[in-house]
Every structure is written in structure tokens, then in C-alpha cells.
Amino acid sequence: SDEHRDAIHYFSSWSCPKLTSVSIGNFIPVPYMVPSSSSLKKVDMSVHFVDFKSKFSLKDLASFLLSLPQLEELTFEFENLNSNIEQVDFPIPSEAVLASVRKLEMVFYRCGADRVGTIFTNIRFPNLASLKICAWGVDDWEEEEEEDVDDVIRSVIPDERSFPKLEHFELGLGMDTESFIDSYSYRHPTYTVRIPFASLALVKHFTLV
Length: 209
Known about the structure:
Layout: H1 2-8, E1 21-25, E2 42-48, E3 55-57, H2 58-66, E4 73-79, E5 86-88, E6 96-97, E7 103-109, H3 113-122, E8 123-124, E9 130-136, H4 138-141, H5 149-156, E10 168-174, E11 205-208
Parallel strand pairs: 1-2, 2-4, 3-5, 4-7, 6-8, 7-9, 9-10, 10-11
Helix pairs in contact: 3-5
């Protein structure tokens, strides 16, 4: 309802003429409801699906991102985005192209490649120069067959054509669910990840952490 939408977007009336970055947690804003959306250059979004009743709208996500014409840096953090989460408004009517984005960071915890893959088959980043993919709590991923770190990485960057201008690639893995650097990781069994080198043919700088 309009009343519910206005309650969530209480900040839409704020005046922030110099705002260039914003962090958003657990909801996708309606396009142009974020102050100074036309001039935002950096957006951090975290979406944690806590139960099976949660829904994910790719259309809403694409519409919001397309309302940010100056966006250069984008960070997504997804938790439990898998087949248990109902995907609505899919497929979207047309491919969303975010030509202004140069830097993208993706942070995953217990996600499924099918759900993650739909994001990157419908939203394109043709001028992306830097990509960072992080997976944390990798011990927990093995509890569900569909939650495979290798598959999720390949769903983001299936081949070298995915990001034709990519020069910097960083892959981060962590055993701990609190941080990527786990000082007690030696207590855990070694987790093997296959790095998709075939998809990184254009990359000039590669970092593994």
C-alpha cells in the first residue's frame, strides 16, 4: 500500500544535496525515493533472508539501480539467497544495463547459484573494471547441496565476456561467519575452491585473500 511504502521511505523528504553514498539494509527502495539519487556515486546494499516466507524481486532491484545514473561503486551482501526464497517479477521485461558502474563487490553467505545467476543474466555491467567476490562462513555452505561456492562464483562470472573491461579481480574466502579473516581457521578442514581462470582472461590484477 502507499501508506506502507511511505512509512519505509520516510527519508524521501530529506534534503541532502551533497549526498554521494548511501547504505541500505534489508529492503529495496522505490526508484527516486532516496535523496539525491541522481547524483549518488556509491551504494552498499545488504539483504539477509531470514525465513522461507521472504521474497526477492529482481524487477524492483533493477528499477532502483537504473534510477542511479551516476553510480560508480556498488556493493551487494546477500545472505541465504537460495531456492527457498520465492523469486517474484521474473524475468524482468528487458535487460538492465548499468554502464556507469566501475567497481562491484559481491558478498555471499549460503547462497544458491540459480538465484545469484538470475541477477547477472538480467543486470549487466559493461564497463566494470574491478570485481570482488567474497564468500564467508564457507563451512556452512556444505549443509545444503545447492549452496556451492564454486557454482556461485561461476554464476557471477561465467566467461570472459561477462565483464569485457574487467582488469581487477579479487576473491575472498572466510571460514568465520563474522569476518573474512578467521584467526582460528586452522581448526577447520581445508575448503577447496576452483578459481575460474578461463573467465579471467582479460584480468591484469588478481588478488586472493
